[in-house]
């Protein structure tokens, strides 16, 4: 019995001491966690939050760095999960960057959520430890419980200035292959301006260089990032874009540069000079109309139209250029013609016009007048003929 109790107690102590728990740590950390740069390089560090199993809605902390090795350059909130900043992130003193933000609509649950990006310039040789102090991560539980488990810093090794002999690219290292889950086909236009890219790295890779622009052979960014295998961007313009990527090994050798083209079209066919140029209505006969219409799109082009009268199911017509639509069997009164023009990215322009009321009413009035005149004339002749026949009959009776 005592032996059984001893085993249970030992197991309990072991589980408690080593924290056997299905939930993962909630952390603040810096990406990349380690890198080697040269004096004069721009060092970009991202403050990240990770909370895989719990909803969180606020983060705060102080980023500290050695001011003799790194020089503060700028702060960027691009790509941040923070929506509200009770206190704007700023350089509170030399060597300390403070941040405090709130995440709403929705709250955050997941890994690798960007809080802030801070850029430094490497100013002298040495080991630069960048830490996160006074960190908090508050749970979305109504009382703001601090659920931060750990805050992890990053180590940057700053080497002497890069000499002209320091190669920027080495032969013999394979070019990485890039894939995109959001823009997989180079020839297709996507109504999504938040492209995501993925790639694989060899075990020897220590950092990557990334850039995105409209140049097919665009230059890479000068700031290395950690050995990440995915990245997401937000592009502010439609058109043909290119993502560029290269990795560097622990020995300082660089791979070839990979280029990934993708297309973005988020503009419906009424913006940027794109419009339905003409809707011509031609009254063929009572209750029948003919419409001629066309639309243009400056990027992906018009794929199809959907044409409908009032609330009836639309008729699909494929292709751009000029199209004709005939509506038949319509009763007099007001009708609404709706034309939906879709481009190849799925954006849509909806254009509606009213027709029928005035023309049909006047035609109906004209027909009623004609019928009335005809009936009046017919009745008048009938009465006249009836009177003549009556007189003839009376005369015959007298005779």
Please describe the structure with a list of short key phrases separated by commas or semicolons.
Immunoglobulin-like, mainly beta, 46% strand, 2 helices, four-stranded mixed beta sheet, disordered N terminus, 399 residues
How would you briefly describe this protein structure?
This protein has helices at residues 2-18, 357-398, and strands at 27-31, 34-38, 42-64, 70-76, 84-93, 96-102, 108-122, 126-139, 150-152, 154-159, 178-179, 189-190, 196-199, 205-213, 230-232, 239-249, 258-264, 276-285, 288-295, 302-309, 315-318, 323-327, 335-343, 348-355. The strands form 5 sheets. Strands 1, 2, 3, 4, 5, 6, 7, 8, 9 and 10 form a 10-stranded mixed beta sheet that branches. Strands 12-17-16-14 form a 4-stranded mixed beta sheet, with no helix packed on it. Strands 21-20-23-24 form a 4-stranded antiparallel beta sheet. The chain is mainly beta.
Please explain how this structure is put together:
The chain has 399 residues and is mostly beta strands. The chain has 3 domains: 25-159, Sandwich (Immunoglobulin-like); 178-264, Immunoglobulins (Immunoglobulin-like, Sandwich); 276-355, Immunoglobulin-like, CATH 2.60.40.10. 15% of the residues lie in helices and 46% in strands. Strands 1, 2, 3, 4, 5, 6, 7, 8, 9 and 10 form a 10-stranded mixed β-sheet that branches. Strands 12-17-16-14 form a 4-stranded mixed β-sheet, with no helix packed on it. It has a 4-stranded antiparallel β-sheet with strand order 21-20-23-24.
Please identify the top-level CATH class of the largest domain.
Answer: Mainly Beta
What Rg, in angstroms, do the CA atoms define? 38 Å
Overall domain count: 3
Judged by helices, strands and strand pairing, the structural class is: mainly beta
Query: How much of the residues is beta strand, in percent?
Result: over 45%
For the sheet with most strands, the description reads:
10 strands, mixed
Query: Total number of helical segments?
Result: 2
């Amino acid at each position: 019995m005592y032996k059984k109790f001893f085993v249970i107690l030992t197991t309990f102590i072991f589980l408690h001491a080593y924290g056997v728990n299905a939930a993962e740590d909630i952390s603040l950390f810096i990406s990349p966690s380690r890198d080697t740069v040269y004096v004069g390089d721009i060092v970009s560090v991202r403050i990240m939050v990770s909370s895989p199993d719990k909803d969180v809605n606020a983060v705060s902390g102080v980023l500290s760095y050695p001011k003799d090795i790194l020089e503060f350059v700028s702060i960027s909130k691009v790509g941040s999960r923070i929506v509200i900043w009770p206190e704007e992130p700023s350089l509170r003193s030399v060597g300390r960057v403070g941040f405090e933000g709130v995440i709403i609509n929705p709250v955050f649950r997941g890994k690798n959520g960007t809080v802030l990006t801070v850029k430094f310039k490497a100013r002298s040789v040495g080991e630069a430890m960048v830490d996160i102090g006074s960190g908090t991560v508050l749970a979305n539980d109504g009382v703001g419980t601090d659920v931060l488990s750990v805050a992890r810093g990053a180590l940057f090794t700053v080497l002497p200035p890069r000499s002209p002999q320091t190669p920027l690219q080495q032969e013999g290292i394979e070019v990485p292959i890039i894939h995109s889950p959001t823009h997989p086909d180079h020839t297709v236009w996507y109504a999504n301006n938040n492209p995501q890219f993925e790639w694989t790295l060899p075990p020897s890779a220590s950092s990557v260089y990334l850039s995105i622009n409209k140049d097919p052979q665009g230059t890479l960014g000068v700031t290395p990032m950690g050995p990440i295998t995915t990245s997401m961007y937000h592009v502010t313009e439609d058109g043909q874009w290119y993502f560029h990527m290269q990795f560097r090994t622990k020995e300082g050798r660089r791979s070839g540069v990979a280029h990934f083209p993708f297309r973005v079209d988020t503009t419906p066919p009424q913006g940027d000079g794109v419009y339905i140029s003409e809707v011509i209505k031609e009254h063929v006969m009572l209750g029948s109309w003919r419409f001629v219409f066309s639309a243009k799109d400056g990027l992906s082009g018009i794929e199809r139209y959907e044409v409908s009268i009032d609330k009836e199911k639309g008729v699909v017509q494929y292709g751009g250029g000029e199209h004709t639509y005939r509506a038949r069997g319509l009763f007099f009164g007001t009708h609404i013609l709706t034309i939906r023009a879709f481009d190849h990215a799925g954006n849509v322009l909806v254009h509606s016009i009213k027709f029928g009321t005035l023309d049909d009413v006047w035609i109906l009035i004209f027909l009623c007048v004609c019928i009335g005149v005809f009936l009046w004339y017919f009745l008048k002749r009938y009465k006249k003929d009836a009177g003549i026949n009556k007189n003839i009959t009376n005369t015959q009776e007298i005779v």
